[in-house]
Amino acid sequence: MEKHCTDSRVKGVSTGTTILAAVFDGGVVIGSDSRASVGEEYVSSKTINKVIQVHDRIFCCIAGSLADAQAITKAAKFHLSFHSVQMESPPRVMAAASVLRDLCYKNREELQAGFMTAGWDKKNGPQVYVVALGGMLINQLVTIAGSGSTYIYGYIDAKYKPNMTKEECLQFATNALALAMGRDNASGGVAHLVVVTEKGVEHVVVPGDKLPKFHDE
Amino acid sequence: MALANIFETPAPGFNFDNAGRNAALEGLFDGGNTPKPMKTGTTIAGVVFKDGVVLGADTRATSDEVVADKMCAKIHYISPNIYCCGAGTAADTEKTTDLLSSNLTIYSLNSGRNPRVVMAVNILQDMLYRYHGQIGANLILGGVDCTGNHLYTVGPYGSVDKVPYLSMGSGDLAALGILEDGFKPDLELEPAKELVRAAIQAGIMNDLGSGNNIDICVITKQGVDYIRPYRESQYKDNRKMKYKYRPGTTTVLTKEVVPLKLEVVQETVQKMETT
């Protein structure tokens, strides 16, 4: 395995990735690609799941070192479930984001993972939060992260509109992921999309060959 | 800090006191040769089939260019329904799997339940993550429990992935080619064994660190079939194993006896007190 990890800044398996989350009218769409890489050249998994459920209506997308991200989301799941037992009610999306932010900030020297938290709660409805590498927490309507995100900033800025319908938002997210996967070598595989609304959670998987094509001759 | 002449029993657990020193030394060497721990250059593979999981491994353990062990067992027992193949540093894979196996046995006895594969994976992940990649163990965990047939990979930094087929070790790319080509969901037993055998064979043929025989372990709900070796290497040597020759094997041609005359030059007496 050592010959695969040459000069990567992230030790071990990394999710060089494209992740995004967007708020629409009544819910959120959170999505990612499915590629995990080791070093700069070996794809260690084509089907890794980067959209992780941390509570009934709260999901989390991971970027960076896979080992760090999995360890943090495990700790976060535990904290959230304990918190919701103590409060006797489902946790707020803000609570989930804060738990992740605390873990990232307190251990910022050792960790190399960034997150996006999105979900629905009764008080504030659909929300999206981003927790960056050092522990910064920001609330946004639409956000993208990962190595592939640089290729779609223009698309997001031009095409995102607040209060879209669920179908429009799903199409927007699929297009964005397809564009990023088409240009970034560290992103690829299938597109995992999760739609969270008050009524429930819907998981949509778009296989690589069914992704929209943009002048791909 | 203990005094140099007092022997202290070592604290339990791993000791990483030298990690800082090693990092500093690497800087001094300036890209030259630093001492490296022994690895099992290896090919291991696993496949989920209709009724269970098939795990396979080669049996060569190398120490630089010399083959240290030609019949090394790389498929380790974890519990009656879970086995684990290990690649990476030989000592680390042995000890990690031993620790996991003892912990799971205690859990089984306490709870009266058979352990689930996902539990073994979680314990391994926690442990390897805690040591931040210092434990060089790349493991393929396969088993059958009440929730189905599972195959997981655990990396040295603690990353986990659940997959239907997998190969690891220095021969992983060669084996992966065979697996990618031949894998289909819900294979029958014989084709699954043949697929794993072919994958390990590819690793043995194309990787210098893998070789000798092929071990296969089939885990199903009914039980475990650990076939060691499944295929023996065609390149076996004939060793006598006994290098003692009976007297008279070599003919004596001539014999000459020369007595040595010794002269006493000096004599000293030293008294010893033996009271």
Automatic annotation (TrEMBL), chain A:
Please give the Pfam families that the UniProt record associates with this protein. Answer: Proteasome
Q: Which residues form the active site?
A: 17 (nucleophile)
Catalyzed reactions per annotation: Cleavage of peptide bonds with very broad specificity
The record's listing under InterPro entries reads: Ntn_hydrolases_N (IPR029055), Pept_T1A_subB (IPR000243), Proteasome_sua/b (IPR001353), Proteasome_suB-type (IPR023333)
Where does the record place it?
A: Nucleus
Under which main EC class is this enzyme filed?
Answer: hydrolase
Enumerate the PROSITE patterns for this protein.
Answer: PROTEASOME_BETA_2
What is a single molecular function from GO for this protein?
Answer: threonine-type endopeptidase activity
Assembly description: The 26S proteasome consists of a 20S proteasome core and two 19S regulatory subunits. The 20S proteasome core is composed of 28 subunits that are arranged in four stacked rings, resulting in a barrel-shaped structure. The two end rings are each formed by seven alpha subunits, and the two central rings are each formed by seven beta subunits. The catalytic chamber with the active sites is on the inside of the barrel.
Q: What does this protein do?
A: The proteasome is a multicatalytic proteinase complex which is characterized by its ability to cleave peptides with Arg, Phe, Tyr, Leu, and Glu adjacent to the leaving group at neutral or slightly basic pH. The proteasome has an ATP-dependent proteolytic activity. This subunit is involved in antigen processing to generate class I binding peptides.
Q: What is this protein called?
A: proteasome endopeptidase complex
- Organism, scientific name: Neolamprologus brichardi
Q: What is this organism's lineage?
A: Eukaryota, Metazoa, Chordata, Craniata, Vertebrata
UniProtKB/TrEMBL annotation, chain B:
The protein depicted here goes by the name Proteasome subunit beta
Which InterPro entries does this UniProt record tie to the protein? Ntn_hydrolases_N (IPR029055), Pept_T1A_subB (IPR000243), Proteasome_bsu_C (IPR024689), Proteasome_bsu_CS (IPR016050), Proteasome_sua/b (IPR001353), Proteasome_suB-type (IPR023333)
**UniProt keyword list:** Cytoplasm, Hydrolase, Nucleus, Protease, Proteasome, Threonine protease
Major localisation: cytoplasm
From which organism does this entry originate? Neolamprologus brichardi (Fairy cichlid)
**Catalytic site positions:** 42 (nucleophile)
A GO cellular-component term linked to this record = cytoplasm
Q: Which family does it belong to?
A: Belongs to the peptidase T1B family.
